[in-house]
Amino acid sequence: MKLEEFNRAPREQAIAVLRPCVDIARWCDDVVDARPFGSVDELAASAASAATPFTDDEIEAALAHHPRIGDRAEGASAEASLSRAEQAGLGDLDAVQRALRDGNLAYEERFGRVFLIRAAGRSADEILSSLRARLQHDDDTEQEIVAEQLRQIALLRLRGAIAS
């Protein structure tokens, strides 16, 4: 969608464009309520500070839509398609994919949620290294990192959804 169209779109249509970026209602509302934007950069800056900070409940609800790193999201939804594209750099993996799967399970056991990282532009080895490092964090530190990763993913997706 073009920025001009997004600025003019009815509220529910604009929110529907944002939901695949991150399905946090308060974030979508804050971004839509800040319209109109003069540029995609202005939109991204507003989106970066929208709904700050995300609440624990908002983060957990948003994570319910994210597949494990290394698992390919299935289905035809916009979010599944975005996830597959973001993880395209992982390619076909053997040992690394098994290590990611094991790391995901360890992370889920430790923190009670899926491991979240902005995968776009990162190699499987980088992601695995980050996963292993993050397993050493305490709950509060990890919660802050997850919120920031969620925000980065939302902004990346937003820039893909809204063009100049």
In short:
With 164 residues, the protein is mostly helical. It contains nine helices and no strands. Helix 4 runs antiparallel to helix 9 (139-161) and helix 5 (56-63) packs across helix 9 (139-161).
How would you describe this protein?
This protein has helices at residues 3-8, 11-18, 25-33, 40-49, 56-63, 78-86, 95-111, 124-134, 139-161. By secondary structure, it is mostly helical.
Task: Give the helices and strands, then pairings.
Blueprint: H1 3-8, H2 11-18, H3 25-33, H4 40-49, H5 56-63, H6 78-86, H7 95-111, H8 124-134, H9 139-161
Helix pairs in contact: 2-3, 4-9, 5-9, 7-8
Low-confidence stretches: none
Helix/strand/pairing class, anyone?
A: mainly alpha
- Let me know the number of strands: 0
SS summary, helix count: 9
Beta-strand proportion: under 5%
In oligomeric terms, what are we looking at? single chain
Query: What is the CA-atom radius of gyration, in angstroms?
Result: 16 Å
Query: Which of globular, elongated, flat, extended, rod-shaped describes the shape?
Result: elongated
Write the H/E string, N to C: HHHHHHHHH
- Distance from first to last alpha carbon: 9 Å
The major beta sheet can be summarized as: none
Helix content: 55-70%
User: How much is the average pLDDT?
Assistant: 88
